[in-house]
Design brief:
This protein has 224 residues and is α/β, with parallel strands linked by helices. It has seven helices and six strands; from the N terminus they run βααβαβαααβαββ. The protein has helices at 15-18, 32-47, 62-74, 100-106, 108-116, 129-146, 159-169, and strands spanning 4-10, 55-58, 80-83, 152-157, 185-190, 208-215. It has a six-stranded mixed beta sheet. α3 links the parallel β2 (55-58) and β3 (80-83). α4 packs across α5 and α6 packs across α7 (159-169). It is globular and about 55 Å long.
Length: 224
Amino acid sequence: MTYLKLLLIRHAESLGNRQGQMEGQTSTALSHRGQQQAKSLAVALNEGKIAAPAYLYTSPLQRAIETAQILQTTARQVPRHQIARNLQEIDQGIFQGLTWAQAVAKYPDLCRQLTQSLAWQPVPQAESPTAARARAQQWLIELLMTHQPPDVVWAISHGGLMQQLVSEILGCDRTWKTPIHHTAIFEFWLADTRWDTLRQDRYNPEWWVLKRVNDCSHLSEFVE
């Protein structure tokens, strides 16, 4: 069986992450720790059995681009690199760039409301979960229109948006909360990219293989 092999990868730790910021679509560089994480990921991917990517998509935010640059330095072949705006993190609106403590101090009533109920409540200027899911869906549609087996594609994105992407790829009608570690890998093998046209075959798991979920085994030396 021939598969389209897709690796979704979260960027390495940024300076904003290190400071506990709700970074959203702000763009900070990788921390020193993040640079080491990305180098460990690069070594692991280069030594792995999966074929080198022909295509590499990244969020336009600096922490994703720097992660991609480090991966490219050790790649067995240099992939075609493309910036994909739909891969950027969910916009946090007025919370963007703040730590939670700073947000509580600045917007106490809103923060209290958010912690008292799971029901969605709008944060001014922030992207809604529905909009984020639509953006993830659009990126996936464009990917599957562009690539077919046996292409190998890597995509570097962000924790919040990746939760939407993983749920969309798995066909979930809801979003599962998954703590996604820095440089964690989700690996999907797709024998068919037009599952909406299939009937009985869509229930045959040989068509789609979930190879790795939140794999960060290459980070054992960095786990705190």
